[in-house]
Amino acid sequence: MAWYGLRMSHRVAGTETVFTYAAPQLVFGPGACGDIGHHLLERGATRVLVVTDDGVAGTGTPDRIADDLRRCGLVVEVFDGVHVEPTDASIEVAVAAARDTGPWDAFVAVGGGSSIDTAKAVNLLTTNPGGLMDYVNAPIGGGQDPTHPVKPLVAVPTTTGTGSESTSICVLDVLGQHVKTGISHQSLRPVLAVIDPLVTVTQPPEVTAASGMDILCHALESWTARPYTAFARKRPEERVPYCGANPVSDLWSRQSLTLLSTAFRRAVRDGDDVGARGDMALAATFAGLGFGNAGVHLPHAIAYPVAGRVKDFRPAGYPAGEAMVPHGMAVSLTAAASLRWTFETAPDRHLAAARMLDPQVAMTDDPADLLPSVLLSVMRDVGMPGGLAAVGFGDGDVDALAAGAMRQRRLIEMSPREVTEMDLSAIIRESMELW
């Protein structure tokens, strides 16, 4: 009740009094993948498309899941053409493949956020009229809502970080506009999230590090997001998946940060540490359940144009020869400066987050530096690049990155502090050299 009382004491007439919360059904634990067939049969499925990428397919996990489903009497095919960091072009390919081999009455996404987000888009576009850009968030796309029900989607994350298994968001690069954006609608949320820590053991340390930074930023951004009571009052039909920080999302964010404080560095150092892998999977799930309702803000908003305007950076641990800034890495690079800038909106929250991540942290001369200093320490320890310059950006890119971030309206609105393009430019400049 303290949370509610604090926020309500600042409420003015006409502001929101209601928050919403939604989550998929969850099956968690080693061996959880064996339960998928049971849940699909309960939902009346007969024909199932497994959606994955070539790298995950190489581990054998998607085929093992497909074989389990066939033993349950389901007709199953595997599409392994997902593009890591999906684009509008790669999603169109996946949709065409699903239409050619369908119809399907259920989907199972096996992989990281790329596979899960591609499956969300395939599900949407094989059940609803129109094209991809009709549904992409405005102002980049049409922002149209689905008009027909989608099919059941089961998400099986093999990387610990994106939280896509818990959210109603599909993220993609729009190549022609050099921007990363998304589709956001409640119907995109998977009906079932199957979290099996054993399938993450093959994840390279670099992917563990970048994905872990995504978990960390999900938790920090939803914890510090604009509270739901700060928005204008909405009618029921106007309520959106990102409703602002609220008491339920806070619980998930807090638990995620606490797990990360002990598991993150261990999981990067030793991928065979099943205990650390399990805690990372749980932290990712908790963070997804938090930010999938509260929302994220500036680090994610800036990360989208960072990823969309990549030049020639090629990260270790990812598909060879392809230029990309992995999503979790892109988010992390401006997180410290962003959270220093938002400190004034809720100092106690920022300080509490720092102590969740490092209970032994000593107060700095400037309290606004405490959380950024803890965050930068984690980034160094897990091998993140030392700033935007380290992934190929310079002063000449600042204006374009800031303009691209401002286009992420859904995320910018979640900032706890009103932000201008000039503010974003300052955050981006501060993030060029982190250490």
| Topology, number of strands | 8
**Overall form:** globular
Show unreliable segments. 4-9
Largest sheet: 6 strands, parallel
Helix-strand topology string: HEHEHHEHEHHEEEEHHHHHHHHHHH
Helix content: 40-55%
Largest sheet: spatial strand order: 1-8-5-4-2-3
**How many alpha or pi helices?**
18
The proportion of strand residues reads 5-15%
Radius of gyration: 20 Å
Mean pLDDT: 92
Structural class: alpha/beta
Q: What is the terminal separation in angstroms?
A: 41 Å
3D architecture notes:
The protein is α/β, with parallel strands linked by helices and 435 residues long. The protein is 46% helix and 11% strand. The chain contains 18 helices and 8 strands. It has helices at 2-9, 36-42, 54-57, 61-71, 88-101, 113-125, 132-135, 205-224, 247-269, 274-294, 298-308, 327-333, 335-342, 347-357, 370-382, 398-406, 409-412, 421-430, and strands at 25-28, 47-53, 75-82, 106-111, 153-157, 169-174, 179-184, 192-195. The strands form 2 sheets. Strands 1-8-5-4-2-3 form a 6-stranded parallel β-sheet, with helices on both faces. Strands 6-7 form a two-stranded antiparallel sheet. Helix 8 runs parallel beside helix 10, helix 11 (298-308) packs across helix 12 and helix 14 packs parallel to helix 15 (370-382). The longest helix has 23 residues, at 247-269. It is globular, with a radius of gyration of 20 Å. The model is unreliable at 4-9 (pLDDT under 50).
